[in-house]
Design a protein that fits this description.
Length: about 750
């Protein structure tokens, strides 16, 4: 009797769907769950049954010496968290048998089953049940079997079985199989003669398929997708997963597009040790029927890898190549966006230590469309060190780099650049504030090769920099509406001095004008890269105020600041770009306000006080009740972003669960300058206990990359629609409103400046 533990092989049914059910999202009151079992017995289940007492009760018991016992009437046998109920049970210790009949019910806290009869043998650790109905506790999975057999050596076999996650009164879908075999030791199950029924109508037939009963991966078919768009026509994609080895796998996806042909996509992933991982992605479409370019064979190749060669050495590679500039616009690959104008390629190694750090990398770019060819760094070597308090409270930082710049355009100059940048700083910190004095030296050497002979061949530039930065912290406590609050006042100032040096003999290899906001007021650089070091003699004044509630959570932050130029900045990118001739910078302000748990407002602005106009502004209002109830309004404005063109765009996005089973989501972004929609995205989802339906429509402005034939007639829109039928409990799960909105070009973004 003590070995009846092996009845519990039926619990393997629970394991067979545990991975799928773990990801399921409970749908409020629409999915009735079975009675939850106590958790207290889980630890006891792991003990040998010989250490767990067995109790039995019945209305009548007939004993025959110590060999057998016949229990009749409301029989209940308990061992740990396992219970067996029946009208009648025979415990035959001599022959190693247990027989039960008449409303047999078994429950182990994981699975509950009902049967007409149960026959178990303790000598062979096996059992057989007839006309079984089972339910996986803690979820909605259930099913039936005409006969269920199980043993420790052979596992579990069900004949004439069904499986579904739908409620009893809503049989939307079910899997019916002639035979299901589960071996929990090797982690896999097999099914023969399986039919997939929707409302009791067979729609698919599988002569054979296998499935995992643990979290291990298994080769097989993944969920297909169905979409339709103006650019590709009707689409059908069927992913096929191949579990090659524990550390290797691949997903092969044939993708049929009615207007373009059949594309083959493949992804190969690998894991070497605990730290080295990567993947290869290949997409190939032969003879694109709709493409107007000369070579109609279109492809994409991508390799990503990162890892650790030793305790100190790291490496990282990300390389992408495509057949033509319009690839992402036409084929909607997950590895790129239709708005991309270049592909970034990177490969590098790094040595990281507590002292010196070293990196060696290459950076290359493939331009998409009619844009100037950028410079690539082939290679770039850096050596750096940070020494805090290295001498009498003085900090020392050192940065150096050696870079070779090349360009695919042979008419552009090339260069080698050596840069050395030591920094000495004296920080003084206390709770009341901090004060830092910093002295830096920029030493840069160039060797340039200019076909037009407009640049000097050799240039040496030496520039010192003095920076003084200080910040004070004031705070007060007060009450408002019977609530305690704490307010801070944090004034900041900075003085920056860099002498002027003529740099027109230096080409522009990795340098551009940096963006401006409140934080940028306290930078010591106006340009990215090292080809231009702007002269400066300026003072920056700024102040930030924060409001904290009685839980010490930030409810409000507001900042405002401005640069006062003591002298004009004359070093520009060229003779017309980057110089500063005004006495002050634009007034920069930022606001983050958490009104309550649902409402928040954030924004920033650059206001030209001399011209009385706004140069740049962003504004956002968020209303979020939960992940499935959220709204967001945004407005973005940038003056004269290029050739006098302004950006003035508004957007509205949201997702709302209008009931436990119905959810709507939509977003719309409008260009107020050009009076046109940039993107419209929306859909509706029905999510029941065991399945979900999702209908999505999208209208997106096509990107213009060039004047070639494939972009003729622009601007135009690509309209697409997709329909998804999702079976919950078969490896899929619901999605939140945020996830649904993330599919758009202007995706919903969680407010990140404040916590509540």
């Amino acid at each position: 009797m003590t070995r009846v533990r092996h009845w519990l092989l039926l619990s393997a049914v629970a394991a067979s769907t545990s991975q799928a059910l773990a990801a399921e999202k409970k749908v409020d009151d629409t999915c009735p769950l079975p009675q939850q079992q106590a958790e207290t017995g889980k630890a006891q289940d792991k003990k040998a049954l010989s250490q767990t007492a067995i109790s039995a009760t019945a209305q009548k018991a007939v004993m025959e010496k110590n060999d057998s016992a016949l229990l009749q009437g409301d029989v209940k046998i308990c061992q740990g968290t396992r219970t067996l109920s029946a009208d009648e049970a025979l415990l035959d210790r001599k022959n190693g048998q247990l027989k039960a009949k008449g409303k047999v019910t078994f429950n182990d806290g994981t699975v509950q089953l009902s049967s007409d009869t149960l026959n178990a043998r303790t000598d062979t650790n096996s059992a057989q049940l007839d006309n079984v109905a089972y339910r996986l506790l803690g979820g909605t999975a259930r099913g039936t079997a005409k006969q269920l057999s199980m043993s420790q050596s052979k596992g579990l076999t069900m004949v004439g079985s069904t499986f579904t996650t739908c409620p009893v009164d809503d049989p939307t879908w079910a899997v019916n199989a002639d035979k299901i075999y589960i071996n929990p030791d090797d982690g896999w199950g097999e099914a023969w003669g399986a039919k997939f029924d929707i409302y009791n109508v067979p729609v698919f037939y599988f002569p054979y398929f296998s499935f995992p009963v643990t979290s291990d991966r298994k080769s097989g078919l993944l969920y297909p997708t169905f979409t339709s768009s103006d650019k590709r026509g009707l689409e059908f994609a069927q992913p096929i997963y191949w579990n090659i080895a524990p550390n290797f796998d691949a997903t092969i996806t044939p993708r049929y597009m009615s207007d373009r042909g059949t594309q083959l996509n493949a992804q190969f992933r690998y894991l070497i040790g605990d730290d080295d991982l990567g993947q290869f992605n290949i997409e190939y479409l032969p003879n694109d029927e709709k493409y107007s370019g000369e070579n109609k064979d279109r492809y994409l190749f991508n390799w990503q890898t990162t890892g650790k060669a030793s305790e100190h050495w790291r490496y990282n590679v990300n390389y992408t190549a495509i057949s033509d500039d319009a690839y992402f616009v036409d084929l909607d690959s997950p590895l790129g966006s239709s708005t991309d104008t270049q592909l970034n390629r990177y490969g590098g190694i790094a040595y990281l230590s507590y002292g010196w750090n070293f990196t060696a990398d290459v950076k290359d770019f493939e331009v998409l469309g009619d844009y100037p060819s950028p410079y690539k760094a082939v290679p770039r070597l850096t050596l750096s060190r940070e020494d805090a308090n290295f001498w009498h409270g003085l900090d020392f930082d050192f940065y150096s780099e050696l870079t070779s710049f090349d360009n695919d355009d042979q008419s552009e100059p090339t260069a080698q650049r050596l840069h050395i940048e030591p920094t000495f700083s004296l920080p003084l910190n206390s709770p009341a504030g901090n004060f830092t004095t910093e002295l830096k030296l920029y030493q840069t050497f160039y060797e340039q090769h200019d076909p037009s002979n407009q640049l000097a061949k050799n240039v040496s530039r030496t520039l010192p920099q003095l920076r003084v930065y200080g910040k004070l912290n004031f705070e007060r406590e007060f009450q408002y509406d019977d609530r305690d609050y704490r307010q801070t006042l944090e004034p900041q100032f900075q003085y920056l001095f860099i002498p002027k040096e003529d740099q027109t003999d230096i080409g522009l290899y990795d340098t551009s004008l940096l963006g401006e906001d409140y934080s940028s007021l306290f930078r010591d650089r106006r340009y990215s890269g090292l080809d231009r070091i702007s002269d400066a003699n300026q003072i920056t004044l700024g102040v930030t105020s924060r409001l904290f509630d009685q839980k010490n959570q930030e409810r409000l932050r507001v900042s405002v600041g401005q640069i006062i130029y003591l002298k004009s900045s004359e070093v520009g990118l060229d003779s017309n770009t980057g110089q500063v001739t005004t006495s002050t910078s634009a007034l920069a302000g930022e606001l983050d306000l958490r009104i309550d748990k649902s409402w928040s407002v954030s924004g920033n602005i650059l206001y030209d006080t001399e011209k009385g106009q706004t140069n740049k502004g962003n504004f956002r209002v968020d209303y979020k009740v939960s992940d499935d109830k959220l709204l967001q309004f945004t407005h973005r404005y940038v003056r004269d972003i290029s050739d006098g063109v302004n950006i003035d765009q508004v957007g509205l996005s949201g997702a709302w669960a209008i009931s436990p089973i119905w959810k709507v989501f939509a977003s719309h972004y409008e260009d107020l300058t050009l009076h046109r929609a940039e993107e419209t995205y929306g859909g509706i989802e029905y999510e029941a206990c065991c399945f979900a339906l999702r209908l999505t429509a999208k209208r997106r402005l096509n990107t213009i990359l060039s004047d070639s034939a494939e972009f003729a007639g622009q601007p135009t829109y690509d309209n697409s629609i997709s329909f998804e039928f999702i079976f919950r409990g078969l490896g899929s799960h619901g999605t939140s409103g945020e996830q649904l909105l993330s599919k758009g070009l202007f995706s919903y973004r969680e407010p990140y400046n404040l916590s509540y």
